[in-house]
Amino acid sequence: MANFFSDNKDLQFHLGHPMMRRIVELKERGFAEKELYDYAPQDFDDAMDSYRRVLEIAGGVCGDVIAPNAEGVDHEGPRVENDHVKYAAGTARNLQAIVDAGLSGLTLPRKYDGLNFPLVCFVMANEMVARADAGFENIWGLQDCAETLNEFASEELKAKYLPRVSAGETCAMALTEPDAGSDLGAVTLRATWSEERQTWLLNGVKRFITNGDGDISLVLARTEEGTTDARGLSMLAYDRRDGGVKVRRIENKLGIKGSPTCELVYTDAPAQLVGDRKMGLIKYVMSLMNAARLGIGAQSVGLCEAAYREALKYAHERMQFGKPIVRFAAVAEMLSLMKAKLQGARALLYETTRFVEMYKLYGHIAQERSLEAAERQEMKFYNRLADGFTPLVKLFASEYANQLAYDAVQIHGGSGFMKDYACERLYRDARIMNIYEGTSQLQVVAAINAVTKGTFKEQIDRYAEASYAESMQPVVAQLRTLTGRFVEMTERVEAMDKETAGYKDLHARRLVETAGHIIIGYLLARQAGESDEYAASARIFARLAEAKIAEAHAFVMNSPAEDVALFRRVEEETL
Q1: Which end of the chain is flanked by fewer CB atoms within 10 Å, N or C?
Q2: pTM above 0.85?
Q3: What is the mean pLDDT of residues 78-83?
């Protein structure tokens, strides 16, 4: 029997991070519910034991059910029947297995029948599901929409919807439209109040909606007549039981084919307001998107894990010139780089998750009581880190998913181009990850403020001041040198941008990626001090970072102001 948790020492390592004690204490409010629910933990050790047991159950479902179904689901895919989605047979079996195992509502409060687990556990489950089938992760992972309801909805809406999510109902976030992709401020789907029916009615079209026919949807709609910008948008909850929405079609995609990507037509579809009017995009979608980006980070790392394992297995089995190809230096180097990127992306994923978790926990506590001054400062601290690290992990993890999937096919050679091997599906599935929930280019736009405002540099300095194993001192020294180059690049870009508008935009990705390479390097060096498992990856990644930063540094430091116009000449090009 396969188990995607017990066979992954890296996941188990991250579950045991020292910050988990503080996270659990805040999540459990000092274990206040131990007398109310027989499954509530009595103390920290009891909580951690519960997390491990449930994650092992999730790992078993992923290994024994979801992964074996993945190829069949990819082949069959969903279809439209009677204006609604009909899942592939394997997807239906996956959903039933998840419900039977009690793996829904992982992070929701117990009063809504949830397990009240930390976000770290949900992200780990997401990663394991994505390793099994990245397309199914899109369906299961969307239960994080329930967290948005839990954070912003009225008690009435929470009581209506959250127990249903805990029972296994699926979710969707209906944001994108045919003429409003990343520019969500251009959304036109209308929500009008009906005095007769005492509800909001939705009319319009949504497109590219993942799991669009889910049981419960969060819909971004224009509630304010005469508006054309973000200030006229609100968030509404739609219940599929109420009708009024038809699935016009399911997109025929390159990958993640088991996940139905829908075009939806709303005709007087009843819905209920979530939170305050006019705050849909400004407040609620931003929260929803940050959660989604963390989810894509987990999905990407899960696919990295699958790609690395497929490549390693094949490299050991494939014989050429009398020996397995893993013994050829070129292949061994590829696999070593794949492992370093995988472990680096995972380190960044769980570091980011912890930052987001701490910020979110204080947000929930603030709804129950006034925060103390020290707590407000801590919340502000983690909020700042979460805002910077969330686009960073989405950028790196999704790009690495594409790189590792590419390398897995390459290691398979001609066989990797055939549908006989899973790496072909992984290669197709990976391609969307640095596109949806904000392209890599948009992640750079979101993360560049963390460069210019000093968030990344301040955190890099904290990493530099920490203690490291003696064996990691050369790596740390290397990272300190690279930090000096990062500072030089940042200072030059900021100075040049004052003279030439657009200079910072031109070099933003180089700055963000440089910060990311240094941060990941420190995270792996820190882990190497706790486990020799990471020593090789820390050294390899530091060399990779040095090469990448040398290229970026040379480009930025030798880039004249004229480069802004040079690279924008394409705007005038016509065919």
Answers
A1: C
A2: yes
A3: 98
